[in-house]
Design goal:
The protein is about 25% helix and about 40% strand. Strand 3 and strand 4 form a beta hairpin. The protein has about 240 residues and is of the alpha/beta class. Helix 1 runs parallel beside helix 2.
Length: about 240
């Protein structure tokens, strides 16, 4: 294992982004991290929430084949968990930072090769929030509607990476997103915050019902339990 390595560093349209690999000495494990400027965007150390985003979002959709969109590629854990469901027939992963897609295609991150080699998976460079508000999520399939849209980009509906993202979490924004779903389709969202009753009310105004699932996992660095929230909402059949 390597104590520390900066695998890649790029100047992008949204700032300086870096991919790092280091050994967490306390636990004796190797982790991958992504930073945007001085802010940590993602880490391979705590990924249970990202995995459960796919598992909870796809749980009740049947045998498929399912057409799924993941908003936010990151280190690939949500996409990988989706592809681990045999019911998934196709997966489009929308990522705003082309350099992140490049890391996967070049095999610089552990899950990259498995995603790029899976014929069901396709990466799409684009702004998920702009696409969600537009008539089509994928210009190559302008009339396509999806069984599930799974999103892991912002910290939470209240703590967005950019002010322009906030529109998605309004009733109007969610109605535009829901238009991309098939009847009975699912919208699932990862959040780092505890369940937000006000946001659940907004979801219930658009969808036929929603559930805020609390995902629990150990945090050995702080010797305590940590939690994420996964919201799952279903479009009327």
């Amino acid at each position: 294992m390597i104590d520390f390595e900066e695998i890649d560093f790029r100047q992008t349209r949204i700032g300086e982004i870096s991919l790092r690999r280091r050994t967490q000495l306390q636990l004796g494990i190797e982790i991958y991290e992504v930073k945007l400027g001085d802010e940590f965007l993602m880490s391979s150390m705590f990924v249970e929430g990202e995995i459960q985003l796919s598992n909870l979002g796809l749980a009740d959709l049947g045998k498929g084949p399912l057409d799924v969109v993941v908003g936010g590629l990151g280190l690939g854990y949500t996409a990988r968990a989706a592809l681990d469901h045999a019911s998934v027939g196709s997966l489009v992963v929308i990522e705003a930072i082309p350099e992140v897609i490049d890391w996967h295609q070049r095999g610089l991150v552990p899950l990259g090769k498995g995603l790029t080699d899976d014929p069901r998976c396709r990466f799409l460079a684009g702004d998920f929030f702009a696409l969600a508000a537009s008539p089509s999520l994928d210009a190559t399939q302008p009339d396509k509607r999806w069984h599930a849209i799974l999103v892991d980009i912002d910290h939470s509906p209240r703590h967005t990476l950019y002010a322009t993202h906030a529109a998605l979490y309004t009733e109007a924004g969610l109605r535009k997103l829901a238009a991309h779903l098939l009847p009975g389709g699912v919208f699932a969202l990862w959040s780092n915050d505890p369940p937000d009753a006000e946001f659940s009310e907004v979801l219930d105004a658009v969808f036929s019902g929603s559930m805020a699932h609390v995902v629990r996992f150990p945090n050995p660095l702080q010797n305590r339990e940590a939690t994420n929230t996964v919201y799952v909402a279903r479009k009327p059949a």
